[in-house]
Amino acid sequence: MTAERGVPLAIPASIFSVSFGLAGLSGCWRLGAQFLGAPAAICTVLTVLTLMVWAVLLVAFLRRLASDRTSLHTELTHPVTAPFLALIPVTLLVLVPEMVTWMPAASRWITWLSIAAAVSLGPG
User: Fold this and answer.
1) pTM for this prediction
2) Number of Cβ within a 10 Å radius of residue 45
């Protein structure tokens, strides 16, 4: 994932809208399975896919931040891009209702850590 050898791609915070959208789709399938008889396995596949996409995007984003220390301050203070940073923990919050069936204890920790992260990335 480099533009030139050793130089990370410029991954903006808004890229996390991709994983957020996948998380929403997974949630819709979960409700469809619960109320309409849709196949529940699709929800599980979408949740795992979303977690994988989220992790890849997070690693790419953190690599970019590590290569350019000033970009974090720019992302946090920009009036347009700053709110997108909250999608990093909020995506996990959307996935918790499905993840709690596989790992209840970890889901509890993920919930509280994601809430804390989302609040800390909020305006102000």
Assistant:
1) 0.87
2) 13
